[in-house]
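Quick check before the chapter quiz. The format below is the same one you will see on the exam, so make sure you can read both the input and the output lines.
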Amino acid sequence: MEFGQRLLRATFCTRGVLPLWRHIVRTLRFLCTMPMMVEKHIALSNGAKFPMVGFGTWKLPKDTAASMVQTAIEKGYRALDCACDYGNEKEVGSGIAAAIASGTVSREDMFVTSKLWNTYHRPEHVGLAVDRTLSDLGLDYIDLYLIHFPISLAFVPFEKRYPPGMGARPGFQRPEAQHSGTGPLRSTA
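Here is the expected output.
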C-alpha cells in the first residue's frame, strides 16, 4: 500500500484520537528519516523556480520575526509565506533585507508569497493592498499574490485598522502567539 493510501486509511478509519496521534507520530518519524529530495524546486510554466520547502511567517512575533526570517534564509529556506493579516510583514521585510545585505541571498533567489485579505477584494482596493504589502516587505515585487480566502468582507481603510484581520467585528481581540526564543531551524540546503 502506498504511503498516501496508508495515511488516508489511518486518518479516516481509526477510532478515537489516540490511534490517529500514534499514526501521525509514526508518519513524522518516517518522513524525518527520508533523504532530502534531489530536486529542490518545481519549474513553473513562466520559467520561475518554486522552492519545494518554504518558511511560513504566520504567528511569528513581531519582536523576533526579523531575526527568525534571516536565520531561516541563512539555513537555506528560499520560499517565504507572508500575508498582511499576519501583522508582521514589516518585520519579515527587515529579515529579508538583512539576509540580502549580508550576502546570504539575492532577491532573485527568493520566492515570496503574500495574500490579499478579505476586506480588499474589490478591484479598486487590490492595488492599494499590493502597494502596502510591497512597502511593508520593502520589496519591488512579490512572486505570488493569493486571495487569502474567498470570503469578501466590508472594506476597512488602512487608517482605521491595519492589518484588518478577522477582528473586523467590534471588541474582537486577536490572540498573540507565544514564543520562547528562536526555535530549532534545520538547513534545507
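If your answer matched, good. Confidence is low (pLDDT under 50) at residues 3-15, 34-38, 174-189.
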